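#structure-requests
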Amino acid sequence: VMKHLTLRGPADPLARRIVEALAVALRRSGSSLEQAATAAFKAAADQQSLRWLDDLKGKVMADVTGANVAVENLSHALGLLPDLVSAGEAIPKLMPFLVATQPVEIQTIALEALTAFRNEPEVARTLIGSWKSLSPALREKALSAFLSYPDRITALLGALEAKDIPAAQISTSTRALLTKNKDKMIAERAAKIFGDGASGARKDVITKYEAALRSEGDAARGSKIYELVCMVCHRYKDRGNDVGPNLGTIQAWTPDQLLTNILDPNREVSPNFALYIIETNDGRTLTGLIASETAGNLIVKRPDGGAEEVLRTDIKSLTSPGISLMPEGLEAAITPQQMADLMAYLRQP
């Protein structure tokens, strides 16, 4: 395949697609495009292919550092950066793209490229330093990156304790995963940070929030609450992500049922929306729903709205704690009046 690519320039559209697919496959195997291609070309004394690889690196770096580069070319270059250069060289190039002035598409690709570097402490430091400039959706992707490796979880907890990242900006799903982590020290540190809001008796919480049933909600305000606490996992009226159930299906629910299901999501857990935790052989941890599976792989939907293919041969362990992807503890993020507003928005025709 690489020999065929040398017949095309690095900017050729077909070559770009093939290179991207190769890079993803090699990254999953624990290697990289640069490592594998250099080793193969040197072993074969293939100078033409080595020059092609150098040309590809040059094209990628030119697109990343150039001005007025087409979005398609920039996206391609950012995505390949971790496969061609070291973390020390790539991360400073990625940081300018992790700001709100960049298109969301570019920010997302830059964030994914940054987190592709495994066992690199600078990744966590960069995520913490960039946190304030990330949109809510990108913060969820950053949290998924933090949860992927134990050292990044430790860095996240440290940032929360130092208040470099406000605890109030951590989603309820991430809070639950941290406070229920199988590592006792992580769970205890998280509990101190977030308090016991996620583990309180559900009956008492529902009783407290029954005031929302007696309050007149404002659907316009509820729309904003939906954006903050629901949209990352749910879709409603063409807004949001298809991770959890589509909220257009709840129109027949009574206000009491809606309140109960929001505050006690584990009362009834559909098998299609049960949380799974997957540990891979390279030390990574993935959490989410199993969207589909074949004899050779699983497709996992992450809480941040993204999806990832996991080869069965790469799985060290797969477990389900028997809880919903939607965790308990939403009351830590909204008041009873905000709950009334959210319900008004979700129940409008």
